[in-house]
Each structure stands twice: as C-alpha cells, then as structure tokens.
C-alpha cells in the first residue's frame, strides 16, 4: 500500500468513527427528549455540535421550552391559553402591528439561500402570521425591533404545529425583559457585562472603562440572531441559549469580548467610539464552540450574584425568575404575565420617583432641605404601596417647591 492509499484508508476510518459517534449522540439526545431529561439535554447542548441537526432540534427545543409531550395536554401549558380555540385573526389588532410588517419586509436576507420570489413571499407571510398570533393572543407583550430575527429562526427550524406555542413561551418566560414598555430592564442586563470583565479580566475591563456596554444591545435583544448570518450557526447557538438560564446570554457576550482581547488592545483606550464600533460586530469567523465553553466557565467562576450590578436587576426579571436552567420549562404562561405586570408596576414607580427627585433638585432650597427629605420619603413609600395617594403627594411637592 503506498502513502496515498494509506492516507485515504485512515481518512475513511476517521470519517466512519465520526459518523458512528454522531449517530450515538443523536440516539442519546432523542432518548433524553423522550424522558424530558433537561439536565442531559443541557449537557448535549453545551457539547460540540449541540443538537446536531434541525430534525433533532424539532424534538429538543419544545422540551426545553416546556411544551407538553402531547400538544394541549400535560402539566405545563403550551402557550395557547385554555379556551383559545378560535382563529387569532378574529382577535383585536395589536398596537405594534405596523412595525411588525416593516420588519417582516426586511426578513430572510441571509438565509435560506436560493429562494425564488414566490418562496420568499410565502415565508414572509408565515413569519408575519407567527408574530401576529403570539402578540394578539398575548397583547400585554410589546414588540421590539429584532424580535422578527428570533422568530425567523423558529419558523425555519420547527414544524408549524409547535411554532406559535414555542415562541409564546420563549417570549413570556425567557426574553420577557425585552418585551416590556421600557428598555430599562434590557440596559440593566447590559450593565452586568463590565462587572464580569472586571472580575475575569481586570486589565481588559480598565481598557474598556470609557466604553458603555450598549455595543451588546442588538445581540442580547435578538439572541444574536440579528448578527449571525448563517442558519447553521444561529441554530447551534440557540441550542445552548434555550438549554441554559437566560443570564447565560450575558456571559456569552462577555466571552465574545474577551475573545477579541488582542484586537481591542490595538485600539487606544481613549478612543471609545472606535472600541464601540469593533464590539458592535461579532468576530469572523465565529468560533462558537470555544465561545460556549468560555461562557460556561465564566458563569461558573463568577455567578451573577457576585456582581455589583446584579442588585439592580428586578426580582421579576427573567434573569431572577429563571435563575436556574430548568425554570423556563416548568413555569406557565400565567406566571410570565404575572412577572410582566410586576415589572411594569416597578417601572412606573421608578418613573414617578425620578420625576419627584427631578422637581426637588430643580427647586431645592437649603433652608427647606429637611422638609424636602420628609416629603420625598413619604412620596417614595406611597408610590410603592398606594399609587393613587402618591399622585397627590407628587402634586403637593410641586406646589411646595414653588412657594
């Protein structure tokens, strides 16, 4: 046997071994889906290749999102409320539908490839219907630009029967913070990134200290679907994002920042705009396997409870209500709405408090500082417990400072 024949034989043996290993992994993942073994699925999602194929993802993703084995039965609801048997098209329009249509018109830019006009039009109609059904059935949710990027992946991977309940549960239980009427909770998530860098890489943290973490906003909001341009890569990343707790996405971006360490140090610290521009775009090529491993290591070494910015995260945020990986699979859609309404109430309280503080600061008078302190204390207490009387106190403050 000459050298070329021997090399060819070794290559065939290697390929055969790799195929056998993939086949065994596939069988093991499907078995874990059958038994709804979330811990095993999480391990497979973190391992190289994740769930391997879309055919396997069609079994694994619904389990991770808490859909019951038989649609409509089981202890965990499917995302369609009991009694909602009518067509979603008969439900009232959602307030954000015009923006939905604008975004759907821009969908399917990178994948799937080689579509003709008729196929593209059909998929856009399906995407629009998927988003509108979720929003009309759960009208408390607020649409955000980039939501269509996430839904596009679910549409291309999952079969029609489970798309709507899967996206509904994802929306209410995993990305709820981004579907509130304010971006404040999303910004608070971003503030965790500098804290992770400070703990894991103080030198890099100091280099980026003048750069706000808003570079991560598009990636975080869209589960990276806005920035990753191949279906295979984004589906692979969704494997682990759905298997891990929601805060994992924050650690994923911290790992991405650290992976660009050498490149970032080539840009001076006093040029935050340039650093921001670099970090707004994901590195190419994107070594997802290494980044997933790095993100897991960061989360294990520096859990969110050890970060200063964690204190600013609402107790109704998905980062806290789904702090353990299995929480999203066991919570109900009703739970998601309760948490949503709790966060909205907190946001309204913060807005009222900030307005009172602004008035006090604008009209502050040293001689009346004690009186102001008493008023702001009473106002804060009432705002939290009794929003109605608080409005009276707010007006009282305004009149007092103008005397």
TrEMBL record:
Annotated SUPFAM superfamilies: Ypt/Rab-GAP domain of gyp1p (SSF47923)
GO BP term (any one): endoplasmic reticulum to Golgi vesicle-mediated transport
Pfam families in alphabetical order: RabGAP-TBC
Keyword vocabulary terms for this entry: GTPase activation
GO molecular function: GTPase activator activity
Chain segments carrying region Disordered: 1-24
Record-linked PROSITE patterns: TBC_RABGAP
GO annotations of cellular component type: endoplasmic reticulum membrane
Start and end residues of each Rab-GAP TBC domain: 51-245
InterPro entries registered for this protein in UniProt: Rab-GAP-TBC_dom, Rab-GAP_TBC_sf, TBC20/Gyp8-like
Compositional bias annotation for Polar residues: 1-16
PANTHER family reported in the protein's UniProt record: RE60063P, TBC1 DOMAIN FAMILY MEMBER 20/GTPASE
Protein's recorded name: GTPase-activating protein gyp10
């Amino acid at each position: 046997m000459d050298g070329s024949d021997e090399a060819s034989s070794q290559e065939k043996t290697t390929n055969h071994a790799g195929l056998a290993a993939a086949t065994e992994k596939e069988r093991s993942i499907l078995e874990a889906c059958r038994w709804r073994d979330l811990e095993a699925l999480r391990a497979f999602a973190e391992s190289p290749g994740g769930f391997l194929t879309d055919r396997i993802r069609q079994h694994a993703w619904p389990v991770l999102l808490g859909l019951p084995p038989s649609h409509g039965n089981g202890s965990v609801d499917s995302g369609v409320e009991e009694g909602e048997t009518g067509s979603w098209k008969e439900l009232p329009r959602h307030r954000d539908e015009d923006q939905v249509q604008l975004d759907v018109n821009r969908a399917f830019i990178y994948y799937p490839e080689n579509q003709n006009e008729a196929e593209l039009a059909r998929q856009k109609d399906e995407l629009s219907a998927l988003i509108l059904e979720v929003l009309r059935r759960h009208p408390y949710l607020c649409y955000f630009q980039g939501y269509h990027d996430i839904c596009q992946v679910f549409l291309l991977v999952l079969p029609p029967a489970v798309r709507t309940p899967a996206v509904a549960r994802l929306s209410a239980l995993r990305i709820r913070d981004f579907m509130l009427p304010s971006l404040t909770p999303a910004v608070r998530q971003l503030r965790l990134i500098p804290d992770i860098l400070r703990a894991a890489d103080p030198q890099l943290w100091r280099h980026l200290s003048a750069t706000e973490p808003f570079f991560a906003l598009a990636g975080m909001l869209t589960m990276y679907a806005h920035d990753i341009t191949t279906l295979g890569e984004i589906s692979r990343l969704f494997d682990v994002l759905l298997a891990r707790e929601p805060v994992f996405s924050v650690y994923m971006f911290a790992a991405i920042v650290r992976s660009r360490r050498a490149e970032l140090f080539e840009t001076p610290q006093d040029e935050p705009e340039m650093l921001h521009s670099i970090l707004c775009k994901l590195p190419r090529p994107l070594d997802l396997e290494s980044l997933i491993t790095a993100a897991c290591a960061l989360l294990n070494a520096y859990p969110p409870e050890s970060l200063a910015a964690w204190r600013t995260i609402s107790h109704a945020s998905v980062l806290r209500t789904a702090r353990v990986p299995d929480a999203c699979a066991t919570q109900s859609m009703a739970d998601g709405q309760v948490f949503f309404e709790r966060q909205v109430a907190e946001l309204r309280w913060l807005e009222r408090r900030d307005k009172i503080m602004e008035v006090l600061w604008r009209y502050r008078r040293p001689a009346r500082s004690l009186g102001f302190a008493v008023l702001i204390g009473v106002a804060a207490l009432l705002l939290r417990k009794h929003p109605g009387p608080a409005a009276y106190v707010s007006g009282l403050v305004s009149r007092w400072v103008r005397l």
